[in-house]
Model the fold of this input.
Amino acid sequence: MNRSLTTRSRPPALGLNEAKIGRELEAAQARGEVESHGGDRKSIKAQTADFDRASLSDIGIPKQRASEMKALAKLGDAEIEREVKTATSEGRRVSRRQVVDAVDGRPA
Done:
């Protein structure tokens, strides 16, 4: 599976789209519509007794991918665009994790 955000044939907007999914996923988790990791299960269950919350697997998003998307969402579009542009101008591919790490100042 190719996990690259950008290649010569793929647009850099892909990272921005994944960040948008990450923002929507966080909002759905905050509303209690999608399960989130951790927390007090009894109070969560009591708050959502009227409906069954979807799990990440129910909506087709692996846990690792959800984590990467939410990390991209926290970075913001400008940071993502800057890192993808830098990687593209240097002729290298960049993964979601590399974008997050580069913005956080971690070595790639």
